[in-house]
Amino acid sequence: MKEIGYVGVAHIHTPGFVDRLNKRSDFHVKAVWDKKPERAQITAEKLSTQTVADLSDILGDDEIEAVVICSETDDHEELVEKATAAGKHLFVEKPLGISGPAAYRMANAIDKAGVIFQTGHFMRGQAPHLFIKQQIEAGTLGKITRVRHSNVHNGSIGHWFESGWFEDGWMWMTDTKQAGVGGFGDLGAHSIDILMWLFGDIARVTAQIDRAFDHYDCDEYGESLIRFENGIIGTMAAGWVDVLRPMPVMVAGTEGTIYLDQNNVYFKSDHVEGADGTTPWTDLPEALPHAFELFLDALQGEDVPLITAQEMAARAAVVDAFYEADKTSSWVQPKTNTES
């Protein structure tokens, strides 16, 4: 059984990760640390483990091979710096950094340390996205011209962030000083990861970002226009103020189209028998385990697909560009590692 540490528990996904850890017989969380001891205590009780008052008790423990970092985003850089210096493998909840430059600094430190890294972008493992990637690589869509991805929910409408495991719920996620972004960046991070994973680097972006209500002091939704390095034109929507998520994915090419609607995949291509675009396409690849499970599997020595720290930093730079584009009403080129 491998020992891991939980470093920062503030993120709204902590309950899900705790549940996954409790279901794994090959891992034991030896200790939990958080800058707010009461949060650490609540989480430790759910993991049937202990808390530590000093982070060094986890990072200096040779039995602990890896740490899960689910702190406020503005604490990531300090925690990642200390964890990589201690040689710990890392799961860091998205986004990697409070900004693109911070994310690139962390990515460079992670690469230099040579540790296993993973983050919470789970959408890559979903069957429709795996299918789209397969068909792009097979060339059944011809030249890709336009793409769209939407990732929305009703979190702001439903006041999701006021309640949770802790006294202040998950409210820090609505404070851009701690989270770096609001609803658009929070959910858009997943969409931009999928878009860049499928279609490559981004040349420039523009965006309009806004809020619908006054109960959270941050943006709640937005829409962006994207030009990829390869010429593809993309659009992306994200936010916390939607009651439905119609057609979350669409890929249009000169010889085919794929889109997702009401959890059904529709596929049109003359290169594939039966792909007439009128009935749901059910011949999909098997979905991968959740990104967190893949991290645990990697710690056990399994050869599984992971997301690199440099990929995460590049996505953070694009999110920065979205917000700068909204602020300046212009097109913005995302910064690269060398520019940061």
UniProtKB/TrEMBL annotation:
InterPro entries: Gfo/Idh/MocA-like_OxRdtase_N, Gfo/Idh/MocA_Oxidoreductases, GFO_IDH_MocA-like_dom, NAD(P)-bd_dom_sf. Residues 132-258 form the GFO/IDH/MocA-like oxidoreductase domain. Residues 4-121 form the Gfo/Idh/MocA-like oxidoreductase N-terminal domain. Coiled coil: none annotated. One of its GO terms (molecular function) is nucleotide binding. Pfam families: GFO_IDH_MocA, GFO_IDH_MocA_C3. PANTHER family: BILIVERDIN REDUCTASE A. This is Gfo/Idh/MocA family oxidoreductase.
